[in-house]
Amino acid sequence: MIIENMTDQTVDAVAGLESQCFSTPWSHKDLISELKNPWSIWITAMENGALAGYLGIQYGPDGADIMSIATSPDFRGKGVAKQLLSHMESQLKALHLKWITLEVRPSNASALALYTSQGFQQVGRRPKYYQKPTEDALLLTKYFEEEPKC
Known about the structure:
Helices cover 29% and strands 37% of the residues. The protein has 150 residues and is α+β, with helices and mostly antiparallel strands.
């Protein structure tokens, strides 16, 4: 599996998977804008030329927010999301960021299991955050441990 930054060549596949996975997907135009946003990092996981998954964040001085993450149905249960999260965490630590956060539907048991297994903890709840259908969002955050100083 090859993990690399989203490009003009992979944005169409990302937009397609986004539409397949979410009731209120990011538009193709929005994804193109993210390529130009200096405060965004979007990565893709490619397997034999097929999009296995992607992860997009926006970040600020201290931390990052996951904007979207998805795995293609053909690649679910194969560790794609874990690899994407691990790869992104390495990039964020290199930027000296201290945390990463996301919203997730309480009904999305598989996503909750993934995030908690990766060290995310619930820090809040956003009432009626999601539409189609309306549902609260759980706010999960992972704090990065400081590396020992030599």
